Amino acid sequence: MNKHDIVEEIRNHSLRLDSHDDLDELVDAIGDAQIVMLGEASHGTSEFYSLRMELSKRLIERKGFNFIGVEGDWPSCYSLNQYVKNTSGAPGSVREAVGAFNRWPTWMWANQEVMELGKWMRGFNANRDESKRVGFYGLDMYSLWESMEEVLKYLEETNSPELFKAKRAFACFEPYSREGQTYGMAAAYLHETCEEEVVKLLTSLQERRFNGRVESEAELSAELNAMVAVNAERYYRSMVRGGNDSWNIRDTHMVEALNQLMRFHGTGAKAIIWEHNTHIGDARATDMASEGMVNVGQLVREQYGRENCYAIGFGTHRGTVIAAREWGAPLQVMPVPKAIHNSWEDLMHRAGAHNQILFLGPENPLFQTTVGHRAIGVVYYPEYERGNYVPSNMAERYDAFVYVDETKALRPVVVEEVVV
């Protein structure tokens, strides 16, 4: 396919994004979708966060969305959730709330952009009935030990009969010094697993729901934390063995967490999801499918129906980003080089060196062309940029695409950091 034709097609079908008011076109296109997935091409770009925030505000105000679920851990996000809902025992300030994001990479959620969102949500919820306040939840599963601690804390406070099972499960993990890789090595090669203990705990907590006993968000949180422990145990065990199982365990967990939240919020619940493009853009439209990988975007479409979901990818031509040179290393402001020739971002730039919204769809054959689409992780090497492009059928991967011609690094908030 001639790339010049694609450039012309983008030029003819895109809308200028000159102000946040231009996002209203996207809100209209989303229509009655039950789940809206908002991506990002990196975990360290200010505009991706601020644009998702503005879109989320409109969806909450005009479309009645119930919560935002993000690519973050349940316990730390629950701290911000308590703040925005102003519940009993909530952090006293948004700065204190984001202080809970102390796991590397802290900057993903401990940043000024998220603080602005938290303040807005707190204000929006202020005059609403407690049962109708909009929530902020973490869908991810890296918080094995923190989640176990939260389960113990809840069961102790409620004098629950499941407390003994929780203590037994936590004790099983204690010898591994909060190191997922250490546990994974022991489980994979020495067959020393805690699988039975955490599964029994989760089963006991789930029985409360099946018996109609889950009435509060605190009970939901206990069950979600137990589910994190079950799936994180599987994740660390599979990660040591290599292959794609660990990726699939993680994304499947995030959808399971989403499903729990949808059930908790009742019939007609509506969710906004913030995750990297590699999670929310349908895996079947990339080379992930040939490698046996699934992701959130694919699973959500399969389970809820494509007509009930709306996926929006985000990207940039150049700019700066927060990332690190290796896992656990200090964050840096790094350059994002100009997009490589004939990549999706390059085609968007050639169509117009300005911010744009492009509505995609399977009916347009030119947007069905497979092109390289940039993905930047928390570990990034700008000098090896060519390896960051994922072959993508853009019209199948997303429903729409938000393009920012030049972006800048987000604004992190310094917290005491834990490297895992």
UniProtKB/TrEMBL annotation:
PANTHER family in the record: ESTERASE, PUTATIVE (AFU_ORTHOLOGUE AFUA_1G05850)-RELATED
Protein name: Erythromycin esterase family protein
InterPro entries: Emycin_Estase (IPR007815), Hydrolase/PRTase-associated (IPR052036), UCP036794_erythomycin (IPR014622)
SUPFAM superfamilies named among the record's database cross-references: EreA/ChaN-like
Species in which this protein is naturally found: Tumebacillus amylolyticus
